[in-house]
Write a structure and sequence with these properties.
This protein has about 170 residues and is α+β, with helices and mostly antiparallel strands. Helix content is about 25%, strand content about 35%.
C-alpha cells in the first residue's frame, strides 16, 4: 500500500513540476498565429519540431518550436478550433502556407508570453497596428571548395537563412 501511495505522490509531483508540454506550446502558438494572420480561414499544422526546452528560473521555462502551417477550409468566425476533424486543408493551389517559429514562455505552469513569426503569411503587427509580409527571401550562393568543412558550413548557413534566421541554432 505504501508503494502505491508513493507512486501516486511521485506522479503528482512530476505532473506539477512546471516542465511545459511541447504539445501545449504548439497549440498556443498556432492559436496566436490564427489571431494575427490576414487569412479569413484558420491555419492548421502540417509539420512540427521542438527546437529547445530550457529552464530560465526556478519555476520558469521557455519552449522554442518550428512548424509549418497550411490554410484550412474552416473560417475564423466558425467557432471551430484549427485541429477540429472537420477542418480539412484547402487545395494546394488556393491554400496559404507558412513556415513559422515560436517562442513560448512559461511561469508556474502558465503561459505568460507567446511570440510567433512566420514566413509566407501576411501577419498583423499589434505594435504598429499594420500588416506585414514576410515573403522576402535572401539568396546565398554556395560553391564547392577543396575544404569540406567550409562547404558544409556554407550549406548550414544557407539552410539557416532559408529557414528564417533563428536566433538560437544548434550547430
Amino acid at each position: 500500500m505504501k508503494a502505491f501511495l508513493l507512486t501516486i505522490a511521485a506522479v503528482q509531483i512530476l505532473h506539477c513540476s512546471g516542465i511545459p508540454s511541447p504539445k501545449d506550446a504548439l497549440r498556443v502558438s498556432v492559436l496566436k498565429l490564427n489571431q494575427i494572420t490576414d487569412t479569413s480561414n484558420l491555419c492548421g499544422i502540417t509539420r512540427r519540431r521542438v527546437k529547445d526546452i530550457y529552464r530560465t528560473g526556478k519555476l520558469s521555462y521557455n519552449v522554442d518550436l518550428t512548424f509549418s502551417v497550411k490554410e484550412t477550409v474552416c473560417s475564423k468566425n466558425s467557432g471551430l478550433e484549427f485541429d477540429d476533424s472537420s477542418c480539412h486543408f484547402r487545395t494546394k493551389k488556393t491554400a496559404a502556407k507558412g513556415f513559422c517559429k515560436s517562442h513560448v514562455e512559461y511561469f508556474a505552469d502558465e503561459v505568460i508570453d507567446v511570440d510567433v513569426e512566420c514566413q509566407g503569411l501576411k501577419t498583423f503587427d499589434s505594435r504598429s497596428g499594420s500588416f506585414k509580409s514576410s515573403e522576402n527571401s535572401i539568396e546565398v550562393k554556395t560553391r564547392k571548395t577543396s575544404r569540406p568543412g567550409v562547404y558544409k558550413r556554407v550549406k548550414q548557413i544557407k539552410r539557416l537563412v532559408t529557414a528564417g534566421g533563428f536566433k538560437r541554432t544548434l550547430w
